[in-house]
Specification:
The complex is a heterodimer of chains A (448) and B (464). Chain A folds into two domains: 212 residues, 2-Layer Sandwich (PmbA/TldD fold), CATH 3.30.2290; 229 residues, no CATH class. Chain A contains nine helices and 23 strands. In chain A, α1 packs across α2 and α3 runs parallel beside α4. The longest helix of chain A has 18 residues. With 464 residues, chain B is of the alpha+beta class. Chain B has two domains: 220 residues, PmbA/TldD superfamily (PmbA/TldD fold, 2-Layer Sandwich); 233 residues, no CATH class. Helix content of chain B is 20%, strand content 39%. In chain B, the strands form five sheets. In chain B, strands 1, 2, 3, 4, 5, 6 and 7 form a seven-stranded mixed beta sheet that branches. Chain B has a six-stranded mixed beta sheet with strand order 11-10-9-14-23-20. A five-stranded mixed barrel of chain B has the order 8-15-16-18-24. In chain B, α3 runs parallel beside α5. Chain B is globular, with a radius of gyration of 23 Å. The chains are: A alpha+beta (448), B alpha+beta (464). The interface between A and B is large, with 83 and 85 residues.
Chain lengths: 448, 464
């Protein structure tokens, strides 16, 4: 019988010690993935992948080295290389491995029905994406898309007592829709969906959303006049405009790096009181839920922003040690990189107004379905194209506009944020509402 | 491995492509005086693609003995057979191709392995320290050295057989500056296909430090630009970005067939007659461009392809499947990033050919406009050629003179409209030679470049 991933991780720790490591951590994953890919509105191919990978962190005192391999028979060499890299590296007192904590399994991570899921069913789901799009409108082209399923076993062990593993199943699906009508080509629209359970697979909502957004942007005209005013961001635009900056600011590694403005703002108001953000690594049904993080620390629910006040940063063992704060169990990353910091299931809690009510209060503004642009997470400055945008006049959606740029500062947007919708959408591991921000510069572009 | 793959390919009942790849990636990151990462990552395996019943199937394995590879062939064949009944547009044939056969070593006199870990670490530590010492306004700094070394064996059942070595080092420098609450980041990167001295032939580590520090500090007191449409001069890096991101993707034949705006426009005018744009596996004008490759991952010789000739659209970028569809030779653009990726159409080195104008002359005659330099690592382009890019350094042009810096500039528009508005192309040329990669479901190391050009486009900015 082949050794389990956890047993291999433990053997790696012993090997690293033999090569001179004073402490060591081995993270391993073994996964089978099958993907049915759509391209050019047709099935492109089915693809299967069997992968195993191990990431070894070796410490010699407070010096650290990292090596990774995807070859089980090469694990001992990787352990030796990690130890050699550690010995050649300058030390850092914050280089520590976490001690073991209580790991409580999370229900629903693994669906045994996934073991009987076949390539043929994945292909049928991919074809289903095309058929749904065609039933909505023949002008739709699904340029890209995929349906994949993955069964994996991951484990982590270290010399401080961590030794844990879990199995997961995951079904992921995506579509990229474009509408074409004669010479007119719409904006592309991407949508994603995911679930851990076979009986929860449902590609239709994401296909409908992508098609609707693509069709809505077909025939859009330039905005006309430039102005400064209200912008209502869709959940997807909230992700690209606001969430990226929030995550940069609450990533404790960026506080250690002295790049985050919020590094010294714990307990202070950094956003409007309507904004509450939580991260829950144990969220029931959450596609990023799991019992432990990349270092083997337990996951838990964490409030990040509460009514606009910064409550906690996201930590792994390194940043928690460096800043003298509590490790929140947000070590993230693959076996092929050193543990970073990242969110699990992130939610912006809903507000009380509906999306339509938020629109009705706007005299002159823009609804932005997707933001394609540049957000500087340090200065907060942003500028980019409002995709799938609709002009709002006197409380009503007036018409689709194209080539329109929006610019401003995300820190200012968070402070002057004037509304959070009751409706939310889940984008893989993010659950987000519509958010209205103020005093955004809207620049009319040329026709596209 | 070559003999093993050839033997397995010879036994294949259907068209079969086998690709062994061993990739060793090493990276060193120093940040704020501390070594943040010293890593070594090995990824090796075999990717197998089979064409059966008019559909492709793909499988990858890390089990590298004959039994394991034959099992992957069987899995790929089964995936193809499963897909075939559902596929609407069957792949009837693959285009004949000029295969690159034999061994293709790295083109360098100074291989990375001739330089020790200690030497690379010492340079990375010293470079990061120089950033921190450059100014009291610098509050954070980092330097990263990364090297990717590949060995590939490419075999197909219809005759490709190549043993390819590749080496792509890169170096990045980042500086964070602060003045009160005002913070900004500056960075510069260099990356090549080649060895150690090739890497720093383009820009030395000291030059990277100087640029990163300047780009961090200068914007601190700078205003944002006024939004609007202006005459602009684009530097070679932005010209390359426009070529690659906004035009290049729309001429990848798989994107064309997916409904890109270029569909059916071969032979039509799509740009100013001053514009000739190419994509090449070679590195013309200046060696060691990042996207240089002798053969693609279908084993096809990676030739120079003229995409736009004097403003007329002449060619798409092809793999063997799309070349057969269009009845043209493949252009050597099929690339896979790792052994577990199937080859897809990717660019290599994409550029506009130099023109005849003096660079300084491009600025003359601009009463009010912008000189735009470099890519701010954010942006996107659609298949309708609509694009938005962040600009790393934007300066106002007033009455022909380059002046004050503005911060946070973005440019947008339709790339073909921009190319039609080109009214001057300089005689200079540079590759970006950066550290980044292109993403299209999988990464690819690419390069892009060109001369300075003058055109019109829309700049996003503040409205008062």
């Amino acid at each position: 019988m082949n050794p389990s991933v956890l047993e291999l991780c433990r053997s790696g720790i012993a090997a690293a010690r033999r090569f001179g490591a004073t402490d060591a951590e081995v993270y391993g994953i073994s996964a089978d993935t099958t993907t049915a890919t759509i391209e050019k509105h047709d099935l492109l191919m089915a693809k299967t992948q069997r992968e195993t990978a191990f990431g070894v962190r070796a410490l010699v005192g407070n010096q650290v080295g990292f090596a990774s391999t995807n070859d089980v028979s090469d694990l001992e060499r990787a352990c030796r290389e990690a130890a050699l890299l550690a010995k050649a590296s300058p030390g850092d007192p914050s280089n520590v491995l976490p001690a073991s904590g209580p790991i409580v399994p999370v229900d629903g991570l693994y669906d045994v029905d996934a073991e009987r899921y076949t390539t043929d069913r994945a292909v049928r789901e991919a074809i289903g994406i095309l058929e749904i799009a065609e039933a909505i409108d023949r002008r739709i082209l699904i340029g890209d898309g995929e349906f994949s399923f993955r069964r994996s076993e991951r484990a982590v062990a270290n010399t401080r007592g961590v030794g844990t593993d879990e199995r997961t199943s995951l079904f992921l699906y995506s579509v990229l829709a474009t509408a074409k009508d004669g010479e007119r080509v719409s904006n592309m629209d991407y949508q994603f969906g995911a679930t851990r359970r076979v009986d929860r697979i449902d590609v239709e909502p994401i296909v409908r959303r992508a098609c609707r957004n693509a069709l809505d942007s077909l025939g859009a005209e330039p905005c006309g006049a430039s102005f400064r005013g209200s912008v209502l961001l869709s959940p997807q635009a909230v992700e690209s405009l606001l969430v990226g900056l929030i995550l940069f600011q609450v990533n404790a590694r960026n506080a250690v790096r002295r790049q985050a403005r919020w590094a010294d703002c714990l307990g202070q108001r950094v956003a409007a009181p309507t904004l509450t953000v939580v991260d829950d690594g144990r969220l029931p049904g959450g596609v990023a839920a799991s019992a432990f993080d990349r270092e083997g620390s337990p996951h838990a629910r964490l409030t990040i922003l509460e009514e606009g006040k910064l409550v906690s940063l996201l930590h792994n063992a390194y940043s928690a040690t460096a800043l003298g704060q509590q490790n929140t169990g947000h070590a993230a990353g693959s076996a092929q990189s050193v543990p970073a910091i990242g969110p699990t299931n992130l939610t912006i809690l809903p507000g009380s107004a509906t999306k339509d009510e938020l629109v009705s209060e706007i005299r002159q503004g823009l609804l932005v379905t997707r933001f394609s642009g540049n957000v500087d997470p340090v200065s907060g400055d942003f500028s980019g194209v409002a995709k799938g945008a609709q002009l709002i006049s006197n409380g009503r959606l007036e018409r689709a506009v194209t080539g329109t740029l929006i610019a401003g500062n995300v820190f200012e947007c968070l402070e002057t944020l004037s509304g959070v919708s009751r409706e939310q959408e889940t984008i893989v591991n993010l659950t987000l509402p519509y958010v209205r921000v103020e005093r955004v510069s809207v620049t009319a572009g040329t026709a596209c | 491995m070559l003999q093993l793959l050839e033997r397995i390919a010879a036994d294949a009942a259907d068209w079969t492509e086998l690709r062994f790849q061993a990739r060793q990636t090493r990276a060193l990151t120093v940040r704020n005086g501390l070594l943040e990462a010293s890593t070594s990552v090995l990824q090796k395996g075999v990717g197998v693609r089979v064409l059966a019943g008019g559909a492709f199937g793909f499988a990858s394995t890390t089990d590298l003995d004959e039994k394991g590879i034959r099992a992957a062939v069987a899995a790929a064949r089964a995936a193809a057979r499963t897909s075939a009944p559902a596929k609407r547009d069957r792949v009837e044939r693959l285009a004949d191709a000029a295969f690159g056969r034999g061994t293709f070593p790295v083109d360098t006199q100074d291989p990375l392995r001739a330089h020790s870990l200690e030497e690379k670490l010492s340079l990375t530590l010293a470079t990061e320290a120089r950033v921190r010492a450059a100014s009291a306004r610098i509050v954070s700094a980092s330097a990263t050295y990364e090297e990717i070394e590949d060995e590939k064996v490419l075999v197909t059942s219809d005759g490709a057989s190549a043993h390819v070595f590749d080496s792509k080092p890169s170096f990045r420098v980042l500086a964070g500056a602060r003045a009160g609450q005002d913070q900004s980041l500056g960075y510069d990167t260099v990356g090549v296909t080649g060895g150690w001295t090739d890497l720093f032939a383009a820009r030395s580590a000291d030059e990277l430090v100087e640029a990163a520090v300047r780009l961090a500090i200068d914007p601190l007191s700078a205003p944002q630009p006024e939004g609007g449409t202006f005459p602009v001069v684009l530097d070679p890096e932005l010209v390359g970005l426009l070529c690659h991101e906004a035009i290049g993707h729309t001429v990848e034949a798989d994107i064309v067939l997916g409904g890109a705006v270029t569909a059916g426009k071969i032979g039509q005018r799509v740009a100013s007659e001053l514009v000739t744009m190419c994509d090449s596996g070679l590195s013309p004008y200046d060696p060691h461009a990042v996207g240089t490759l002798p053969v693609d991952d279908e084993g096809v010789v990676a030739v120079r392809t003229v995409i736009i000739e004097r403003g007329i659209l002449r060619s798409y970028l092809h793999n063997r499947e799309t070349a057969a569809h269009y009845g043209v030779p493949p252009t050597g653009n099929a690339r896979a990033y790792t052994y577990s990726d199937n080859p897809i159409i990717r660019m290599r080195n994409t550029y506009i050919e130099p023109g005849e104008a003096e660079t300084a002359a491009l600025f003359e005659g601009i009463r009010q406009g912008y000189y735009l330099k470099g890519f701010a690592m954010s942006g996107q382009a659609d298949s309708n050629a609509e694009f938005m890019f962040g600009v790393r350094e934007a300066r106002r042009i007033v009455d022909g003179n380059v002046g004050a810096l503005v911060r946070g500039a973005t440019i947008s528009g339709n790339a073909f409209d921009v190319l039609k508005s080109v009214d001057a192309v300089a005689g200079d040329f540079a590759w970006e030679k950066g550290a980044g990669a292109c993403g299209k479901g999988q990464a690819a190391k690419v390069d892009a470049g060109g001369p300075h050009i003058r055109c019109r486009l829309t700049i996003g900015g503040r409205q008062e």
